[in-house]
Structure formats: structure tokens, C-alpha cells
Write a structure and sequence with these properties.
This protein is mostly helical and 286 residues long. It is 71% helix and 0% strand. It has one domain. It contains eleven helices and no strands. The C terminus is likely disordered. Keywords: Hydrolase.
């Protein structure tokens, strides 16, 4: 694992950043929830790191992995904050209100749930990363990315690349803190329902606003595309999520997405400012 700090310029990126509006809005809806969620992940994992004591190699390694995880996630939510500002700029004025509602949910969890459950919740969410990385760091989304804004597209690819890279950290931490199968599955289902609830809440708002000026024919076409997007996204992730229910599941053993190395090289060579440059300094400050 390593912390990458690519530079994306969203100043000219539209809210509908690819040719299929419903796909763009489904991803935008997930993006709105990312900063509150990943701040929550970092709070939980920082708390869990204090419980990983000892100077044995396994403990030292796990603490180092948690530190890198937190740094990666901090970069992710900072960039998603920039991305989400596009929505406000383009007239989706309820986004800050929805962000606050999502933030309140995670604050409530952090304040009321046990550390074992919180780490299991984080591990549950982190199982979504590799499943999504198979799509974003592969070719299965190509039809939806035709004509996509390159800054937004590569932001998602970079994010999912690193989600795959740190896929084992929450799992290993949960094994150290609790490790029970039923706790892991319960928290996985719980977080999946929460993530779907808030993503759907934001997506419904975005599409409702888009559809407010549509003709009846345009509305029917939009709803048809929305269903097609939902089917395609589910098809991309469902098999990878089914694996989570196995008692022998270990994220360490998941196959590497087909374009993972290619995308890593592209991020490093095209989207990451050279060390010491003015852009690199600005990216680190952001």
C-alpha cells in the first residue's frame, strides 16, 4: 500500500459528467456519502489502532497498515469533497443538507456502538471496495464511460484502485479486535442497508431535480435507463459480494482487477504532479 496524491481539476467538470445521466447520478449519489463515511472509518480505525498493542511483527505491521489506510482514506474524502462541490455549483442545493444527515448517522453509530461492531461495520463497507474495483479497474463499465469527463473518471478509478489495495486492513483489524463470523456478517448486512438507504436518498433527489423539466417521453426514457444502470452495477458486484458470506472468506485472496496495474501507471505518470512541484505541494495541502 502507498498513499498517492493525484491532482484532479473539477473546475470545468459538469455534474452530469458522462453520456448516461442516470449512471452519473448514481455515482454522484455514492460520492456525496463518501466524506462522512470515510471520516467515520478513520475515527474507528484510529480508535482500533490503540487496541493493537505489542511489539511483535504482526502487531507492528497491522498498526502500520492502519496508518496507511487512514492516510489513503483522508485523501479520498478530501477529493470527493471537491467533486461534490460540483453538484452544489450546478444547482443541487440540498446536497449540504443531505451530507449533514449522513454525517449525523455515522456520528450516532460512533457514539453508541461497541468497538467490535464499529470495526465489523468498517470491514463490511470495505468489502464493497474490491467488488467495485473489479468494475472500475476493469472494462465492464466502458459503455457507461464513453465521453466521460476524464478528471471525474480517473478520480473514481484512483479511489477504487486504492480501495482494492487496502482491502485487507479492516478485515485484519476486525480479526484482532473480535473475529466472530456472525458479528462480521451482521455488520456487513447492516452497513449495506445503510449505504443503500443514503445512496438512494441522494440519488432520488438528484434524479427528481433532473426530471422536473422533462417531457413524459423523456421521463420514461430516464426511468428505463435508471433500471438498466442498476442492473449493470449489480451484475458487476454481486458475485464478489456473495463470497463475503463464506466462513473462509479472506480479502487477501481476491484476484487483482484486470486493469489495476495499467491504471496505477496512468495515475502515477499522468495525474500525479512530480514531487516538489508547485502542483504537488498544492495537492498535498488539499
Amino acid at each position: 500500500m502507498r498513499v498517492r496524491q493525484p491532482k484532479f481539476d473539477f473546475s470545468n467538470s459538469p455534474a452530469i459528467w458522462t453520456a448516461v445521466p442516470e449512471f452519473a447520478q448514481s455515482q454522484n449519489a455514492a460520492s456525496v456519502g463518501i466524506p462522512p463515511l470515510e471520516r467515520f472509518l478513520n475515527r474507528v480505525m484510529a480508535k482500533a489502532r490503540k487496541e493493537v498493542t505489542g511489539d511483535d511483527p504482526a502487531s507492528v505491521s497491522l498498526r502500520a497498515d492502519i496508518t496507511t489506510f487512514i492516510r489513503q482514506e483522508s485523501c479520498h474524502y478530501a477529493v470527493h469533497d471537491q467533486m461534490n462541490a460540483i453538484l452544489v455549483r450546478d444547482g443541487y442545493d440540498r446536497i449540504p443538507e443531505l451530507e449533514r444527515e449522513i454525517e449525523a448517522h455515522y456520528n450516532h453509530l460512533f457514539e453508541t456502538k461497541s468497538l467490535a461492531f464499529l470495526v465489523a461495520y468498517c470491514e463490511g463497507f470495505e468489502t464493497l471496495g474490491p467488488a467495485s474495483a473489479m468494475a472500475w479497474c476493469g472494462d465492464s463499465l466502458n459503455d457507461y464511460l464513453v465521453g466521460a469527463d476524464s478528471n471525474v473518471e480517473m478520480m473514481y478509478r484512483w479511489h477504487l484502485l486504492e480501495e482494492f489495495e487496502h482491502r485487507h486492513v479492516c478485515f485484519d483489524t476486525f480479526k484482532r479486535i473480535h473475529g466472530g463470523y456472525f458479528m462480521r456478517i451482521y455488520a456487513f448486512v447492516y452497513q449495506l442497508m445503510c449505504f443503500k438507504k443514503y445512496s438512494s436518498l441522494v440519488k432520488d433527489y438528484l434524479l427528481e431535480k433532473d426530471r422536473s423539466t422533462m417531457t413524459d417521453q423523456q421521463l420514461r426514457e430516464s426511468k428505463r435507463r435508471e433500471k438498466a444502470v442498476a442492473r449493470a452495477v449489480m451484475k458487476n458486484v454481486i458475485w464478489n459480494l456473495v463470497k463475503v458470506f463464506s466462513p473462509t472468506y479472506r480479502p487477501h485472496n481476491l484476484p487483482i482487477p484486470t486493469r489495476w496495474k495499467q491504471i496505477e501507471n496512468e495515475i502515477d505518470t499522468t495525474w500525479t504532479p512530480p514531487a516538489g512541484s508547485r502542483k504537488a505541494t498544492a495537492a498535498m495541502a488539499g
